[in-house]
Structures are given as C-alpha cells and as structure tokens.
Description:
Chain A is mostly helical.
Amino acid sequence: MKRIHKHSALCREVARHIQNQLDAELLSPACREIRKHLRRCPTCTAYLDSLKKTVLLYRRYPDPHVPAIMREKLFAILKTTT
Amino acid sequence: MATHLSDEELIKRAKKGDERAFTQLVRRYESLVYSFAFKVCRNEEKASETWQDTFVNVFRKLHQFDGRSKFTTWLYSIVTNSCRMKRRQRKLDKASVSIESPTESHDGSDDDPSVLTIPPWKDTPLDAVIDKELRTLLDEAIQRLPYDYRVVFVLRDVEGMSAEETGKILKLSVPAVKSRLRRARVFLREQLNPYMTA
Ligand SMILES: [Zn+2]
C-alpha cells in the first residue's frame, strides 16, 4: 500500500506562507527552511504550483475592449450634467 | 491637443473647464477603467454601467482631487465605489457564498490543504489561449467569491497594485488586505481544482 503523506506542522506553516506570498520571497535567507521543505515535499510543491496557476489564469484572462458607443453616450450625458 | 501632456497638466486644465483635456483624460484611462470594472463585475452590461458612472463621477468630483494620491489610486477608488453602489441597488450579493471561516479565530486551521495528497495541476503554458470554456469557468468561480474579497484579489493579483495602494483604494488596513487576498486565493484555487486536475 502506498504511504499516505501526512501533513506535518511544517506543511501547515509552509501552506500559510505560500498562500500569503506565493513564491515571491522564497529566495530570501529567512525562507531557507521553506525552500528546503519544498524540495522534499511534493504535496506542498503541488499546492504552491496550483496557487500560482490560479493567479496566472486570472492574469491571462483577456482584456475586454471598450465599446465605442459608450464613449458617445458618456459625452452626451456629460453635456447635460453641466 | 498634444497627447503627451502629463496627468497633472490634463487635470489642471480639465478642472478649469477645458473639455478637450477632460476628453483626453477619458481616452487615457477608459480601457483601464473598463477592464477593471469587467474583472470585478464579470458582466459586460454591469461593467459598462460602472464605466459610465465612474467617468460621470470623475467629471463631477475632479475638483476634489488634490493630487496627494496618484490619479490612478483615486480613479480605482471611484470605480470600486460605483460598483459597490450598483450592487447595493441590485442586491447582487445573494449568489456569492460566505468564506468567513468560524475556525479561523480559534486556531487558524482553516487553511490547511484540505486533502492529504494534492493532485498536480495541468500545465498552463503561457501562450495557451484561454478558451471560452475556461473563461466561463474563471468567471463563475470568481463570481462566487464575495465582492469584498474579489475586489482585493483583482487589485492585488491581477492589476498588480501593492498592498498599501489597495488599502488606500478600499480604505482597508494592510493586514486586512493581506488576509482577504490570502482567503481569495485559497477560495479560487479550490473552485478551479476539479477542473485543473481532471
Ligand atoms: Zn509539505
């Protein structure tokens, strides 16, 4: 039977850290332990990857274009507000 | 009119009633406002209404802008206020779920990865097109996120604002911004998880 990965207290700490920072500060010396843990723990690595991809997907969502008619409507409204 | 005039100069002229300067200001920021409004509302009609309300308010309130904050910070705060007013009028919050976790205040244990093994997510190559199916999924997931969290997520993670700027725009403390951002990320990840591991 496959051994089930058991969450350690460290996993919880790492999860909290990557929810807050993603991998933004992982290069700093203070995050040495977290880096070390990530190299060994596939669960935390997969978790970090999935959070980063979540953000990435929303960032890559295409920008909509402003419909030209809105501009005309806006300036028509502004003429009456003065 | 020259297009390279600074925001400050355009604002100064627009305040004096220079219509062309105001038009120029609208042109400069119309896409930013529309795209932000859309990302928060996730609906073209609501985004258009918010867009219009925003610029009507900019027009009315421009004399109140004192230049102490960045113009974009001021602009974003007008968009979020317009959006909030719209929601209040329409009571749109019904559909979103509560992500306030009752366990958080006791032991902070709300945020463990909730399964023992985390299945790896599909690759999302940088050049892959976000197709209609995925777009719908992203829209639906973020619409389930309560507005107060959604707007923080969009400002911080999508628009790339700092925690400090986001706090200024939403009149929130930096720790409140950080906590909402963390919960928003965790929530959205959970929403997308079934799709991304299928
Ligand atoms: Zn771990």
